[in-house]
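subagent[fold] <- orchestrator: predict structure for attached chain, return tokens only, no commentary.
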Amino acid sequence: MRSRRSFGRLATVVITGAIVFAGCTDSGSNDNQTSGGPESSEASDGGGHGGMEHPMDGGPAPEGMTPAEEPEFPVGTKVKLTADHMEGMEGATATISGAFDTTTYSVSFTPTDGGEPVTDHKWVVHEELENPGEPPLAEGTEVVITADHMAGMEGAEATIDSATEETVYMVDYEADGMMMTNHKWVVESEIEPIQ
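subagent[fold] -> orchestrator:
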């Protein structure tokens, strides 16, 4: 009788463990896919991206952007990222792939694809807004985003949370075994020289 109870308890523990483990694994759905293609990387919730994903290749800078004349970190410079916009970004070594002088904004928006609202998304540049007028735009200004950094962003109505005139950079870096190229954007205060 005692061995049956022990066996019953053991079976209960094993089954419960299997159920918990199954809940932690990928269900095989396409939840990790974005319009950027199957190769994407998930943003961390701490960076205001609401768990959304960025394509692995961010593509070229928008037309009309002015390259920075004397950036602190010229193109090709290896740097350390201090931003935590995405999983694996903070502390990563990166290579500067573009440096620009423009106004850069933190924005809040509801994705056009029905996703959860995104607050304090860093960053969108002035050239990625529809008919924005003269920079800098004031906090609370309502705009339409033309950037497609992540699914549901392009065409979304947004509110400006803050603006900065810091040099803004595109970077290439590796996170969680994936290489991100032309990631948009990090501002100068989110970058440190490699010691």
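orchestrator: received. Logging for downstream: Residues 2-23 form the longest helix (22 residues). The helical segments are 2-23.
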